């Protein structure tokens, strides 16, 4: 019999009134368990003392288990009492018979009692647990605020000592990046200003014993009586960080990330209305920054980048050649678009580009009047349909400062674009080797180019930061003695230390591939204004300079730059040697041919006479046409016609005077273009029009 009770005890929690039960199931299990033991015990003549012994053992075991999981004394007492009361009833019931009204009634009462007690202890345990968590959090907060209080006290003393200003610290925020903290402080009454503290940045940094490259920078608080002091404690400028490998879409409206601040937070350039000026002496990491800037523009869905680089086009070539040279292919072997929309490496091409930009700005101003009225704005709403044109002019500041008469013409055009095109969505990024007075002395640049970067790379010569960032004091060149590091200021973010990411050549290729489908096309109105000059920008003769300017070896940028601007790009540099670049250019031409069907076929001699291609098409005959100026002009007109398209009569009319081309000839060309996929025919009969495949509805 004893064995039975023990077996029950071993095989299941008959008398376990606590494990895994809520108040109701616990009480039910306890009372039914006790009832079962009592009835079985009475029927089998089990000695009643056994139940009491089991109850006592249960109470003891449960108390030990409860202590282990740190139950409260109250919970332990309730549970032990439950065991003992239950065991007491079982013992009594086995002696007096469990099937009497008194036994059953008292068992029910015990059940309700246990249920209520368990419910109460459970609630108590929950409350106790919550209180423990809250206490832990209070302790963490107290420790944190103790640290913050210590920082506040330290800086109140320091600002008093260094600046003789007694501030009251309102808050201290430790940066998530773990590289420093910001102090929000109230200035004392009596005329103290945040700029007084800003001017003492260097002395404050020294007083705080900050590591090299770390600063205490003051900026305005939420009103003029408050100041924010950003204190960096880890030097992130020293580290080389590569351009983030996530090449997701950007927009002129989201801003374009150019690098990161000393608190490791990225900083963006907002260029919808602003132009930018980037100054960096040789070896400071300027070329790297230009690539980084082009990378951001390439990622944007509403920006087209036009690059002028009279120093061998080195800034733009890595964004063009791998794409058009067929080095990079999109899915299914499709050609990819270059990472920039236009690259000018010669004086003539640069002039053409700037003239085009002026024409586009003027045309946009006239043609988008309705749109501006509808949007109740004088700023053209830039989107993927009407993209912003970003003119990046490497060493543009040197062009502006050049005494050369020819170069001055370029300078005037650059200034004209800057002056007239803000509202119409054309902005420029000018780079400079030095912050020359003649550039910053120019009112137009001072007014329009408020996004500014000075890469120092440790260079102190000719670095007048107070001219680059007027009003910002306490900036010292020696604070950023690393390549790619310097200062950046924008209308949204005051001038302060910054570092550009390092962008690697393979990343440029990755970005070209990743963004090829994302680049917008010039809106029809702008494309019409841009005309053939734009449409033919990738023509073989127009890109021949790329070959002439093939990557040099053994020549440093300094040598190339000479006194600031190397005009070698303006000279003819005939080359006869056959080199890998020749091969690359051949592939490039093939690519152009595939895209625009324009490149001459060496097998067919150039022929100025339009081919009577109207009846029965002969593609090989048409190849001869491709060197024919009338044929090329017709294709340019088709491209310039954009999405609206054009027809044979319109093209023939436009060509009649200069080339004497007949409608019948144009019909032949159009049919050929439809056949080889260059053009798409839309509509029938008299409504038929032809659209270049670049503007065809499905693309
Ligand atoms: N952001 C950066 N982070 C780390 N290293 C950099 C960074 N930018 C440039 N560098 C280093 O500096 C070297 C020179 O960079 P870059 O060619 O961009 O300088 P530059 O000012 O254009 O000089 P140059 O006029 O001689 O071409 C790079 O090869 C690279 O090693």
UniProtKB/TrEMBL annotation:
Q: Where is the composition biased (Low complexity)?
A: 598-614
Query: Do the record's keywords include Signal?
Result: no
Which sites bind ATP? 280-287
Q: Which UniProt keywords apply?
A: ATP-binding, Nucleotide-binding
Q: Give the matching Gene3D superfamilies.
A: P-loop containing nucleotide triphosphate hydrolases (3.40.50.300)
Domain FtsK: where? 264-464
Quote the SUPFAM superfamilies the UniProt record gives: P-loop containing nucleoside triphosphate hydrolases
Per the record, the domain of life is Bacteria
Q: Which PROSITE patterns does this chain map to?
A: FTSK (PS50901)
Q: Segment Disordered: which positions?
A: 598-617
Q: What is this protein called?
A: FtsK domain-containing protein
State the taxonomy lineage: Bacteria, Bacillati, Actinomycetota, Actinomycetes, Kitasatosporales
């Amino acid at each position: 019999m004893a064995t039975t009770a023990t077996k029950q005890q071993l095989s299941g929690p008959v008398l376990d009134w606590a494990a895994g039960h809520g108040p109701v199931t616990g009480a039910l299990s306890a009372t039914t368990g006790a009832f079962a033991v009592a009835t079985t015990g009475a029927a089998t003549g089990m000695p009643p003392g056994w139940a009491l012994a089991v109850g006592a053992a249960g109470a003891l075991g449960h108390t030990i288990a409860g202590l282990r999981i740190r139950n409260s004394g109250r919970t332990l007492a309730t549970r032990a009492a439950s065991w003992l009361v239950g065991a007491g009833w079982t013992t009594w019931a086995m002696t007096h018979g469990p099937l009497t009204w008194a036994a059953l009634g008292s068992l029910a009462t015990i059940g309700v009692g246990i249920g209520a007690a368990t419910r109460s202890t459970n609630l108590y345990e929950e409350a106790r647990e919550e209180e423990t968590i809250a206490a832990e959090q209070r302790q963490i907060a107290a420790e944190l605020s103790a640290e913050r209080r210590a920082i506040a006290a330290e800086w109140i003393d320091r600002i008093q000592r260094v600046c003789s200003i007694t501030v009251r610290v309102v808050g201290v925020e430790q940066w998530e990046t773990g590289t420093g903290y910001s102090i929000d402080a109230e200035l004392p009454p009596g005329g103290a200003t945040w700029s007084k503290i800003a001017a003492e940045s260097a002395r404050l940094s020294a007083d705080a014993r900050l590591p090299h490259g770390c600063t205490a920078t003051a900026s305005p608080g939420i009103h003029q009586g408050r100041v924010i002091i950003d204190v960096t404690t880890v030097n992130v400028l020293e580290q080389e960080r590569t351009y983030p490998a996530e090449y997701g879409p950007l927009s002129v409206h989201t801003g374009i990330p150019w690098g990161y601040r000393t608190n490791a937070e990225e900083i963006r350039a907002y260029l919808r209305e602003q132009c930018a000026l980037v100054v960096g002496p040789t070896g400071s990491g300027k070329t790297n920054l230009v690539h980084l800037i082009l990378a951001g523009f390439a990622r944007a869905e509403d920006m087209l980048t036009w690059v002028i680089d009279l120093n061998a086009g080195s800034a733009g070539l890595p964004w063009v050649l791998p794409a058009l040279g067929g080095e990079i292919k999109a899915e299914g072997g499709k050609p990819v678009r270059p990472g920039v929309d236009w690259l000018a490496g010669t004086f003539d091409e640069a002039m053409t580009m700037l003239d085009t930009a002026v024409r586009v700005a003027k045309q946009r101003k006239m043609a988008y009047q309705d749109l501006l009225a509808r949007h109740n704005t004088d700023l053209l709403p830039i989107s993927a349909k009407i993209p912003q044109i970003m003119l990046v002019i490497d060493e543009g500041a040197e062009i502006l400062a050049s005494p050369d008469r020819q170069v001055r013409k370029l300078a005037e055009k650059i200034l004209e674009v800057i002056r007239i095109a803000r509202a119409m969505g054309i902005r420029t990024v000018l780079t400079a080797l030095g912050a020359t007075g003649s550039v910053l002395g120019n009112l137009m640049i001072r007014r329009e180019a408020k996004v500014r970067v000075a890469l120092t790379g440790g260079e102190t010569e000719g670095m007048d930061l107070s001219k680059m960032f007027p009003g910002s004091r306490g900036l010292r060149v020696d604070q950023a003695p690393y390549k790619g590091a310097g200062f950046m200021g924008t209308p949204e973010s005051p001038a302060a230390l910054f570092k550009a990411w390092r962008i690697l050549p393979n990343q440029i290729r990755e970005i070209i591939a990743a963004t090829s489908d994302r680049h917008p096309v010039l809106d029809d109105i702008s494309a019409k204004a841009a005309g053939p000059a734009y449409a033919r920008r990738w023509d073989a003769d127009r890109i021949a300079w790329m070959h002439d300017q093939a990557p040099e070896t053994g020549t440093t940028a300094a040598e190339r730059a000479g006194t600031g601007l190397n005009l070698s790009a303006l000279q003819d540099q005939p080359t006869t040697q056959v080199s890998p670049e020749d091969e690359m250019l051949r592939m490039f031409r093939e690519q152009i041919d595939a895209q625009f069907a324009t490149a001459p076929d060496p097998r067919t001699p150039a022929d100025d006479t339009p081919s009577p291609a109207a009846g029965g098409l002969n593609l090989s005959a048409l190849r001869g046409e491709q060197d024919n100026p009338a044929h090329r002009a017709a294709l340019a007109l088709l491209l310039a016609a954009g999405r609206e398209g054009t027809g044979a009569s319109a093209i023939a009319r436009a060509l009649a005077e200069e080339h004497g081309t007949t409608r019948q000839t144009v019909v032949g060309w159009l049919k050929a273009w439809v056949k080889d996929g260059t053009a798409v025919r839309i509509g029938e009969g008299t409504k038929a029009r032809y659209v270049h495949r670049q503007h065809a509805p499905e693309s």
